[in-house]
Design a protein that fits this description.
The complex is a heterodimer.
Chain A lengths: L9 H25 L2 H15 L11 H15 L24 H12 L3 H12 L4 H8 L3 H15 L14
Chain B lengths: L2 H13 L9 H14 L9 H12 L27 E2 L10 E9 L16 E2 H5 L22 E8 L3 E6 L7 H21 L12 H8 L2 H5 L13 E10 L2 E4 L2 E4 L9 E4 L2 H11 L3 E2 L13 E9 L4 E6 L5 E4 L10 E3 L3 H11 L3
Parallel strand pairs in B: 1-5
Antiparallel strand pairs in B: 2-3, 2-4, 4-5, 6-9, 6-11, 7-8, 10-14, 11-12, 12-13, 13-14
Classes of the chains: A mainly alpha, B alpha+beta.
Chain lengths: 172, 361
C-alpha cells in the first residue's frame, strides 16, 4: 500500500494503534452522520487520510479531537458531493446491531436522514458525543447561537420519530 | 435536560452500531493519502460550443411537460427583476421541511456580477428543485478554498403551498457558492436529461438520472427484500448499451473541494457502445459479485460521472454506474441494498476503450 509523503517509523505504529483503539468510536459517529456503514467507513478513512500527513506534528492528546474535526469538516464539505453510485436508492441501511426496537431505530435513522446536514451534525455532536453547545460551535466553526437554533429545529423535526414519541399517557 | 433530549441520547446510542470493523481503516487512509498525491485537478476545458448548444436545447424544453411538474404559475427568467418583491432568506436560518415548487438563479448585479453572465434559463422544478439544499452554513468547511469561482448570484426559491418566494445570495454561502452553483447545474442536467428521456421508450436506452432510473425501474420490493443472489438473468449478455456522461463540476482532493471544470451549463452526453465494447463488457460482467464495494481507489475521474444503460438478452434493462471507469456498480432488480452492492472490476481493455471514448467529449 502506498504511503508516500506521510510520517514514517514509529508514527505509523502510533497511527495504527490510534485507529485500532479509536476507530470504532469514530465509525459510530460517522454512521450517525451518514446513516450508512459504507459511507461511515469512507468518511473515517478520508478523515484519517487527511490527518496522516500531519500525524507526527499533532500532539497525542488532541489527536482524536483533530481527527473528529477533520471528519466533521469533510462530512459538511461533502454535503453536495455525489457518492458515486454507491447510494442508488433512498432505502434504509441495514439494521444496526444493538436493536432496541428495529422499527424505532429505522424510524429515527430516517428522521435523521431528513435533516439538513448542519442540523444533523449538531444533533450528533450534542446528543451522541455529548459536547456542550460551546464545544459543538467550536468544532463546527459557527456561533453558539447557530448551534442552538439548528439544534432546536432538528429536535422539532425529530419529535415526529417513533423513537422520540411520548409513551402512552405522556403528553408530547 | 428535557425528556426528549434524554430519549434522543439513548436512541442515538442504540442506533450507532458497535460491530463496525476497523480492519480496513488504516490501509484505506493510506490509500486515500496516496490517491490525493497522484490526483491532479482536471484542467478547465473550453466548453463554449457545448454551452451554446445546451442553452439552445434548454430554451426549447419549457414547452414539454411531464406529470412531475407543478402547475403554473412558474417563475421565468424575467423574475430576476422581481428581487425587491421577494422575502430574503436569513443567513443561519436555512429553510427546512418546506415544499419547494421551483428554484432559479439570477446574476447578483449589485454584488458585481456581469448582468449578461450566462445562467441556466430554465428553473428547476418539483423534485429537482427540492433536492437542492440551500444552507447558509457558516462552518469552517472551506478547507483550502482559494475563493469562489462562481460569479455572485441570487438563488430564488418558490415554496409551497402559498408559493412564497425566498432569495438567497451566493455571497452568504461563503466558499460554498461553488458547491451551490455546481449542485444547481448538476440538477439542471438531471432535469433536462429526464425530461428528454420521458419522451422516448426505455428500449431506446436514453440516458436518465439515477433517481429517475431507480423510481422507474426498481420496485419497493427490490429495495427492501434484503440481499439476494445475482440470478442467471443478471449475467445474461448485453445486446445494446448507451454510455451516459453526466457533468461533474467539483472534485474532492486532498485539500478539499476543487473546481474540475467551468461552472457553466452542461448536459449529459449519450454515446452508444459498439459490439466490441459490449463483448468485453459482457465478459467482465461474469465476475460481478454481491457486496461489491469498488476497488477503493475512486474519487472521481475526469469531468463526468458515468453510467451505462443496457438491455440484456433476457430482455431486462439494467444500469451500471460509477465515478471511475475501472469499476462498475450495477443497479438492477437484483439490487438489494446499499450495503450489498452488485458490481465488478472491468478488464483493462474495457476501461481503456471507455476512456478513449470519453476523451472525445
Amino acid at each position: 500500500m502506498a504511503r508516500a509523503g506521510g510520517p514514517d517509523g514509529s508514527a505509523r505504529e502510533e497511527f495504527e494503534s490510534f485507529v485500532s483503539a479509536r476507530g470504532p468510536a469514530l465509525l459510530r459517529t460517522a454512521f450517525l452522520l451518514t446513516g450508512d456503514r459504507g459511507k461511515a467507513e469512507d468518511l473515517v478513512q478520508t478523515a484519517l487520510g487527511k490527518t496522516w500527513p500531519k500525524w507526527a506534528s499533532i500532539q497525542a492528546e488532541p489527536r482524536e479531537a483533530y481527527v473528529r474535526k477533520v471528519m466533521l469538516n469533510t462530512y459538511i464539505a461533502w454535503w453536495r458531493r455525489r457518492w458515486n453510485a454507491e447510494d442508488p436508492t433512498e432505502q434504509i441501511p441495514e439494521a444496526t446491531t444493538r436493536e432496541h426496537d428495529p422499527a424505532m431505530s429505522l424510524d429515527l435513522l430516517t428522521a435523521l436522514a431528513g435533516l439538513p446536514k448542519g442540523q444533523r451534525a449538531v444533533i450528533v455532536l450534542r446528543y451522541f458525543e455529548d459536547l456542550t453547545e460551546a464545544r459543538t460551535a467550536e468544532v463546527l466553526g459557527c456561533s453558539v447561537g447557530t448551534v442552538k437554533s439548528q439544534g432546536a429545529r432538528a429536535l422539532a423535526a425529530l419529535r415526529t420519530s417513533q423513537a422520540l414519541a411520548p409513551s402512552e399517557g405522556e403528553l408530547r | 435536560m428535557s425528556d426528549v433530549e434524554d430519549q434522543l441520547r439513548e436512541a442515538l446510542d442504540r442506533l450507532a452500531p458497535d460491530d463496525l470493523s476497523t480492519r480496513d481503516l488504516t490501509t484505506g487512509a493510506w490509500a486515500y493519502h496516496a490517491r490525493v498525491r497522484r490526483r491532479k485537478v482536471a484542467a478547465a476545458a473550453s466548453a463554449l460550443a457545448v454551452v451554446l448548444v445546451l442553452i439552445a436545447v434548454a430554451v426549447s424544453l419549457p414547452g414539454r411537460s411531464t406529470n412531475t411538474l407543478p402547475a403554473s404559475p412558474l417563475p421565468t427568467p424575467g423574475d430576476c427583476s422581481a428581487a425587491s418583491a421577494v422575502t430574503p432568506a436569513v443567513a443561519g436560518t436555512p429553510p427546512s421541511q418546506v415544499t419547494v415548487v421551483a428554484t432559479w438563479i439570477c446574476p447578483d448585479v449589485a454584488a458585481g456580477a456581469d448582468a449578461v453572465w450566462d445562467l441556466p434559463v430554465i428553473p428547476l422544478r418539483g423534485p429537482y428543485a427540492a433536492q437542492l439544499s440551500v444552507e447558509p452554513w457558516t462552518a469552517d468547511s472551506c478547507e483550502s478554498s482559494a475563493g469562489s469561482a462562481a460569479p455572485p448570484f441570487t438563488l430564488y426559491r418558490m415554496e409551497g403551498p402559498d408559493r412564497r418566494v425566498t432569495a438567497f445570495h451566493s455571497k452568504d454561502a461563503s466558499c460554498r457558492a461553488d458547491s451551490l452553483l455546481a449542485a444547481y447545474l448538476t440538477a439542471q442536467a438531471d432535469q433536462q436529461t429526464d425530461q428528454a428521456a420521458a419522451q422516448v421508450a426505455l428500449a431506446q436506452l436514453p440516458c436518465r438520472s439515477e433517481t429517475a432510473w431507480t423510481n422507474e425501474n426498481l420496485s419497493a420490493a427490490d429495495t427492501t427484500a434484503g440481499p439476494q443472489p445475482i440470478d442467471a438473468s443478471g449475467r445474461t449478455p448485453l445486446t445494446a448499451a448507451t454510455l451516459c456522461l453526466k457533468p461533474t463540476y467539483l472534485h474532492t482532493n486532498g485539500q478539499g473541494v476543487a473546481l474540475a471544470q467551468p461552472l457553466t451549463v452542461r448536459g449529459y452526453v449519450a454515446v452508444p457502445l459498439d459490439g466490441t465494447l459490449l463483448a468485453t463488457l459482457n465478459a467482465d460482467r461474469q465476475t460481478a459479485r454481491e457486496g461489491f464495494r469498488g476497488n477503493g481507489e475512486c474519487l472521481g475521474e475526469g469531468n463526468w460521472t458515468y453510467s451505462i444503460i443496457a438491455k440484456t438478452q433476457a430482455g431486462k434493462f439494467l444500469r451500471m454506474s460509477t465515478g471511475c471507469l475501472d469499476e462498475f456498480f450495477i443497479l438492477a432488480p437484483t439490487q438489494a441494498s446499499t450495503a450489498n452492492h452488485y458490481g465488478f472490476i472491468p478488464s483493462n481493455e474495457t476501461t481503456a476503450a471507455l476512456r478513449s471514448l470519453v476523451l472525445r467529449y
